[in-house]
Structure formats: structure tokens, C-alpha cells
């Protein structure tokens, strides 16, 4: 999770093996304040039930294409979410997330949190 204004990493969560993003979010038991606006991608389809102020892009179906207003809203949301994707890309430069982790599994969370801390520290300096 990121803070949009400061671009800092606020919270991290991990699991063993492959796990869907939304399932990982639910299992982490992170509770968002009701006033906080959450921007997610389309992977978090059930998020509206957990948090009322969740915004995600609309999906088209075969029978119902998106209107021009819905397309503009999707473009607006994706332009706001690009900050998250840029930060994830910066964290992937450390290769701990981008490639297979081959060290002790116990220390993965500690090492990734240290990398996130270094990233946050660099933002302040």
C-alpha cells in the first residue's frame, strides 16, 4: 500500500508461494479508514464490499461495451494509479520481487521491508 501524496510505502504483506493480490489483502487484515479513498486495479473485484470508497476501473463485457464517459473515468483512474505502478517498478530494481527469491524464506519479509524503508528514506532526502 502506498500513500499517494508522499509516494511512501505504507504497508507490505507477503505469503508463501503464489497468492492472488486480493486474497493476500483479505488475509493481511489491513483495515482502511472509511474516509480513505482506495484506488485499485481490476484484480480487487470484491473490494467494494469491504471498503465503500474503493475505486476501480469498469470492465466491458461482450454484450455491453463501455460508454465514452466510463472510458474517460478509466483513463482518469489509471493516470492516478500510475504512481503506484512506478513505485512498484522502482522496488523491482532490487530484484527481490522481480525474480525468484532463492534465499531463506524467513528473511524475505524483513529484507523487502528494509528495501521499502530505504526507498522511503530516499524520498525524504
Structural features, described:
By secondary structure, the chain is mostly helical. It has helices at residues 21-28, 47-50, 68-92, 108-124; strands at 38-39, 54-55. The protein has one domain. Strands 1-2 form a two-stranded parallel ribbon. The model has no long low-confidence stretch (mean pLDDT 85).
Descriptors for this entry?
single chain; 125 residues; mainly alpha; two-stranded parallel sheet; 2 strands; 43% helix; 3% strand
Bulk shape: globular
In spatial order, strands of the major sheet run: 1-2
H and E order:
HEHEHH
- Give the tally of β-strands: 2
Q: What's the gyration radius in Å?
A: 16 Å
Helix content: 40-55%
Q: How much strand?
A: under 5%
The residue ranges in which pLDDT falls below 50 over 5 or more consecutive positions are none
Task: Provide a brief overview of the structure.
The protein is mainly alpha-helical.
Structural topology:
Elements: H1 21-28, E1 38-39, H2 47-50, E2 54-55, H3 68-92, H4 108-124
Parallel strand pairs: 1-2
